[in-house]
Amino acid sequence: MTTRGRFITFEGIDGAGKSTHIEAVADALRAQGEQLLLTREPGGTPLAEKLRELFLHEPMDALSEALLVFAARRDHLVTRIEPALAAGLTVLCDRFTDATFAYQGAGRGFDLQVLATLEQWVQQGVQPDLTLWFDVPPAVAAQRRAASREPDRLEREAEAFFERVRSGYAARAAADPGRVRRINADADMASVREAVLEVVCQTVRGSHGA
Ligand SMILES: Nc1ncnc2c1ncn2[C@@H]1O[C@H](COP(=O)(O)OP(=O)(O)O)[C@@H](O)[C@H]1O
Ligand SMILES: Cc1cn([C@H]2C[C@H](O)[C@@H](COP(=O)(O)OP(=O)(O)O)O2)c(=O)[nH]c1=O
């Protein structure tokens, strides 16, 4: 019988360094012979990528944001993540439901109980095995974004919004310390990479019973 794969998510405010380090983790795990699904949210399937485009560029209220990301998540979970885990793959996902609690919940002030209900409906108890929270002050993340890309709809939000989002991540980490590991992302690339690889390798080795 195939052992179920590990589900690892990468979280943090925009510009924290998630996308950079998910690639580094993927390279390191592939070099160890791991089979991977590297994916992202919102997105990861043809339908969810269409919803992502709407989400990132069309103005909408917080409930519409929450419904869109959970609709995208449902499709992603059922058609890609669950089959990959069942086949024994390690799934690396750039953002998942913690982002909804942080951005729509803490950032927009949307009702956390409603988000928890949607989480239960959509995920039916499925949760990541490990979440890496790239924690960085919003001013540092803003500098990194300004140096690297044009902002999308959410990235144009003020620093106070990202302060709230950061506190939303802190609350999720405090509520589930066994799953969420804080990475100090306000450090040079090499130190962040080392910290990330150490945590991920522990989890993947653990899943092989080593
Ligand atoms: N630890 C770091 N120190 C300095 N710059 C970084 C660090 N991590 C990432 N960056 C740079 O910051 C920018 C945003 O990183 P990115 O990985 O796209 O962030 P995110 O996916 O979290 O939005 C990129 O140009 C990246 O090279
Ligand atoms: C998954 C998810 C993302 N988001 C936001 C966070 C980001 O601003 C945006 C897209 O995330 P991301 O893919 O990290 O964007 P980029 O590749 O440009 O860094 O969507 C939510 O607001 N709620 C969610 O549930």
UniProtKB/TrEMBL annotation:
Any GO molecular function: dTMP kinase activity
Keywords, alphabetical: ATP-binding, Kinase, Nucleotide biosynthesis, Nucleotide-binding, Transferase
Principal EC category: transferase
InterPro entries named among the record's database cross-references: P-loop_NTPase (IPR027417), Thymidylate_kin-like_dom (IPR039430), Thymidylate_kinase (IPR018094)
Domain Thymidylate kinase-like intervals: 10-194
Annotated signal sequence range: none
This protein's record includes keyword Transferase: yes
Residues that, per the record, bind ATP: 12-19
Alphabetical list of SUPFAM superfamilies matching this protein: P-loop containing nucleoside triphosphate hydrolases
Its EC number(s): 2.7.4.9
Reaction equation(s) it catalyzes: dTMP + ATP = dTDP + ADP
Entry similarity comment: Belongs to the thymidylate kinase family.
Function: Phosphorylation of dTMP to form dTDP in both de novo and salvage pathways of dTTP synthesis.
Record-linked HAMAP family: Thymidylate_kinase
Protein known as: Thymidylate kinase
Organism listed in the record: Ideonella lacteola
Phylogenetic lineage: Bacteria, Pseudomonadati, Pseudomonadota, Betaproteobacteria, Burkholderiales
